[in-house]
Amino acid sequence: MDAKSYCDTINHQLTGWKAAIYDALLATRKLEGTDKEKVQPAIDSLNGIVAELNQSLDQLRSECPADWSPQKKTIENKLEELKSTFEQFSEKMDKIMPDSTAWV
User: Fold this and answer.
1) Which fold has domain 3-96?
2) Over its length of 104 residues, how does the chain's per-residue pLDDT go in tens digits?
3) Hey, how many other C-beta atoms are within 10 angstroms of the C-beta on 81?
4) Where are the domains of the chain?
């Protein structure tokens, strides 16, 4: 797979993650006080990871290096971090809003 195809594939995945994060943000609007404070660090982290992924993808697209395996490794690590952080957020939300469909 070439760098452009890889970027397109990851960008598509990232769009899905952004939609999930947006839904999570909407759910946190229902929260108040300490409940909101409990999940805010996870939301901030999710937004930061997405920003880093966007930056890595933009850099990979613009520089188009012959050996882009280091960038690929970085992007894949960030995607794993995003998944893990979102799972942690989900667990916190499930504790706060036990009805599993309430925040989805």
Assistant:
1) Four Helix Bundle (Hemerythrin (Met), subunit A) (1.20.120)
2) 777 788 788 888 888 888 888 888 888 888 888 888 888 898 899 889 889 888 888 887 777 677 778 888 888 999 999 999 999 888 888 888 776 555 55
3) 16
4) 3-96
